[in-house]
Amino acid sequence: MPDLCSKTRNPFTGVEANAVGVKVNDLSKKFGDMVVLRKISFEVEPGEIFVIMGPSGSGKSVLLRHIAGLETPTSGTVTVDGLDPSLAETRNRVRLALVFQSGALFNSLNVYDNLALYPREHRSMDAKAIRERVMHALKILSVEDAALKFPSELSGGMKKRVSIARALVMEPQLLLYDEPTSELDPVMGATISEIIATLKQEYSVTSVVVTHDRSLALTISNRVGILMAGRLVTLGPPDDLKKSTDPRIVDFLNPKIDIEHPRFKAFETKETEEVS
Amino acid sequence: MKQINSILEGVGSVVQLLVRSLSYAGTLPRQFARFIEQCYLIGYTTLPIVAILSFFIGTVLALEAGYAMSDLGAKEFIGSLVGLSMARELGPMMTSVLLAGRVGSAITAELASMKVYQEIDALVTMNIPPARMLVLPRLAAVLVMMPVLIVIANICGWFGGSVVAKYVSYVGIGPEAYFAALRHYTKFKDVVNGMEKAEVFGFVVVLVCCDIGLNTRGGPREIGAAVTRAVVTSLILILVLDYFVTKILL
């Protein structure tokens, strides 16, 4: 990826981005009677890669949606660069992009128009510049051949890459990724990790990444938070996490496949004991 | 009590969407392509079914009127009955019902699936208000296309009546007599009143269908439920509004 690493020209922004910080303070979220997030607090420094890990259903994506301003907290606050991310004025001041787990591409538009929508709607550049920007982003993600295809014609992995390309075209100051490497082959997964790392190193874009990808989390992140049952159980640099002796974290990061004593049988035994 | 709350919430949501959409009215010129696309979908693709339906409504009106009036010796007034009925009531009403079923359901299905599959969330994070991009062009298009559809509906209905008046033996009124009565009793004001009604109905149908689509939550089953709710709500609103708008216009 020579263009991506070029110091002379930022392939996404053309100028150095002003990274922004995120502050989550005592955030709780309930859907009906179900508590999804419980008093979560942390800060993401400008230019940092902050990874959120946790078992499925632990509230990671809901937390990310709060940072993107797509959910309203039941209690507590979330601020991006000191501003409420759910307000339109904040989005006018801070360029924030979210890479959805499903891609969330516009099905009625082809790949090129999906990427060109943001600069067209915001009239931030002329048609020629838009074309250059879009094709460059597609090239970085190795999906330039799909420019004229519709999302329904793409594989899951291609949709994910197009979705990341669409986020890059937005010249983001804060990039939120929801499972960016799921559905990708190991090489493309590593490429995405490299892109996230390069954005930080070269252009100091702040990244918040929700992932199950251990190698992404432990290789490129500055800090990792682990969410379990809506609580942030640990937060720190990846090296600290590797040294953790907390059995929940050890088991989560290095799950052993034990055919002799499978986990589901342990759950069954526990349930039977509880009933009796 | 819960249902009243739900209705009031729905009204509030529709009003908010209307205000938000109108606040972006200045962006309409640069959304001209989207506006034309919606004119095509709302107007052009609805036109054949409107024409067919109106033609047969006209024929049935002429048949019924001919049957009832032939005993009274008032067959020459069939043209006036068909003319006025189509222009003032049946043209706008039936076109709006068709709009709800054909266009309204499609709008709700599209926006609901965009919502369910997070495309609306993507728009919000891109700072592109859905009210500006998805609702405003549709509202503008329905305001432009409804009068066109009404004119076509009226012409087809009147023509359908004239065919029956001429070729059904117990009616037996020639086109000259039929259209003379129609022209004599159906004034330009009646046609305009019908258009005004249709504008109100069409605008409300599109607004309500957009609102229900944008507020859909869940999965594919909820998309179907949203479409049903949008069409039923639209039909009820057309009937309720019909009374009040007619009362105001009379």
What is the gist of this entry?
With 276 residues, chain A is of the alpha/beta class. Chain A has helices at residues 2-5, 60-67, 88-93, 111-122, 127-140, 156-169, 186-203, 214-220, 238-243, 247-253, 263-275; strands at residues 22-31, 34-44, 49-53, 75-80, 96-99, 174-178, 206-210, 223-228, 231-236.
Question: Would you spell out the secondary-structure blueprint of this structure?
Answer:
The complex is a heterodimer of chains A (276) and B (250).
Chain A: H1 2-5, E1 22-31, E2 34-44, E3 49-53, H2 60-67, E4 75-80, H3 88-93, E5 96-99, H4 111-122, H5 127-140, H6 156-169, E6 174-178, H7 186-203, E7 206-210, H8 214-220, E8 223-228, E9 231-236, H9 238-243, H10 247-253, H11 263-275
Parallel strand pairs in A: 3-7, 3-8, 5-6, 6-7
Antiparallel strand pairs in A: 1-2, 1-4, 8-9
Helix pairs in contact in A: 4-5, 4-6, 5-6
Chain B: H1 2-23, H2 32-44, H3 47-70, H4 78-116, H5 119-125, H6 130-167, H7 175-185, H8 188-214, H9 220-249
Helix pairs in contact in B: 1-6, 1-8, 2-6, 3-4, 3-6, 4-6, 4-7, 4-8, 4-9, 6-7, 6-8, 8-9
What low-confidence regions of chain A span 5 or more consecutive residues with pLDDT below 50?
1-15
Class derived from helix and strand content of chain A: alpha/beta
Major sheet summary line of chain B: none
Q: What percent strand of chain A?
A: 15-25%
Q: Strand portion of chain B, in percent?
A: under 5%
Q: How are strands sequenced across the largest beta sheet of chain A?
A: 5-6-7-3-8-9
Q: What is the oligomeric state here?
A: heterodimer
Q: What does the main sheet of chain A amount to?
A: 6 strands, mixed
State the end-to-end CA separation of chain B.
35 Å
Computed CA radius of gyration of chain A, to the nearest angstrom: 20 Å
SSE order of chain A: HEEEHEHEHHHEHEHEEHHH
- The rounded distance between the terminal residues' Cα atoms of chain A is 61 Å
Contiguous helical run count of chain B: 9
Largest interface: A-B, 23 and 16 residues
What's the helical proportion of residues of chain B?
Answer: over 70%
Low-confidence segments of chain B: none
Topology as H/E string of chain B?
A: HHHHHHHHH
